[in-house]
Amino acid sequence: MIRRLLTIFTALALLTTAGCGFRLQSNYQFPDELAQVRLDSSDDQGELHRLVKERLRLSNIEVVADDAAPRLWLGDDRLERSTLSLFPSGQVAEYELIYSVRFSVTVAEQAPQNFDIEIRRDYLDDPRTALAKNRELELLLGEMRAQAADRILRALSATKVDTDAQP
Questions:
Q1: Out of 51, 56, 107, 153, which could bridge 61 as a Cys pair, Cβ 3.0 to 4.6 Å?
Q2: What letter does residue 61 receive in the DSSP assignment?
Q3: Whole-number Å distance between alpha carbons of 155 and 114
């Protein structure tokens, strides 16, 4: 009896989450036209390019060099920082880090779909721990890039493909 109730409860929970559009994180549904993608970027050796290429592979999207394939273009990524607070001595105590990247998706003869991603983080800069802060900044930038790569794939999965415009 308990096993039957547990089975019914599990089935209801799955139907409820599936019905509301819930999906596991990084489990994207890509249009069939995006089974192969040409990945171009302003920095083919950069960390963001590598992360996006890895996530495409994990999503079973083949990265090809074919000019006829849909194109995912990654622009330059930038890291800016602005001052949030100061110590009484006038030295910067806290920064806001702003990581941004532009990218576009072009499918067949359609106009490119352009996207901008901006990720913000606060960063406390204590001069007494300067060595540790450099490493912390590197780790934070790596996390921001990984989050940007996830957002790029999310945008790619939501790309509108007009089947009437294709030859």
A1: 56
A2: -
A3: 10
> Strand pairing partners for 73?
40, 104
pLDDT under 50: residue ranges of the chain: 23-24, 165-167
pLDDT value of residue 21 = 55
Select from 3.30.160.150, 3.30.1330.60, 3.40.50.300, 3.40.190.10 the CATH code of 27-159.
3.30.160.150
Q: Using an 8 Å Cβ cutoff, are 143 and 160 in contact?
A: no
Q: Scanning the structure block, which residue is given the tokens 């913000």?
A: 120
Q: DSSP letters of 118-154? A: EEEEEEE--GGGHHHHHHHHHHHHHHHHHHHHHHHHH
The model's pLDDT over 5-54, given as tens digits with 9 standing for 90+, comes to 778 878 777 777 666 655 445 566 787 888 999 999 999 999 999 999 99
- Measured CA to CA, the distance from residue 144 to residue 92 in angstroms comes to 22
Is-contact 4 10, C-beta < 8 A? no
Give CA angle at 105 (102, 108), nearest 5°: 155
- Residues 83 and 92: beta-carbon distance below 8 Å: yes
